[in-house]
Amino acid sequence: MSKGKDDILRYDKMVEQALRGVVRQAVEEVREEGLPGDHHFYITFMTDYPGVDIPDYLRDRYPGEMTIVLQFQFYDLSVDDEKMCVTLSFNNVPERLVVPLGAITIFADPAVNFALQFQPMGDDHDEPGFDPDDFPDGGDDGKASRKKDDGKSGEVVSLDNFRKKD
Prior knowledge:
The chain has helices at 11-33, 56-61; strands spanning 41-46, 65-70, 74-79, 83-90, 93-100, 104-109, 114-117, 155-157. The chain is α+β, with helices and mostly antiparallel strands.
């Protein structure tokens, strides 16, 4: 049996898909139960990813990438194996966002110092690194406030070390 480029098990893609399942499950639990305690989510996604459905003015304002906060004011949250949907308010105007799970590049819950960074699905190019300072603790409707540092450090799970090198 020959060992060609396509004849290897892609553990990196398997692990990434499993970790996207963590995002799906977390969103599903929040949809059913609400956000417990101080939990809140920062979700960064590619605005030009196929299947992303956001208003044109948001796509213009956030070309390439956008971060949303699920904390205080979000409505009609839903998720399935392919995408998540949520209604958020932008300048007091409710907007429905549809985000394929494959478009998500960062999922963070600062309340417990948890973050996952993903590579774009179906694309092996390098993305910029995760910077925890991009995600201040707190926030509402796109406004963020920084809480006192409690000395806890978070851990970012990056799959780059497991990726196939061409």
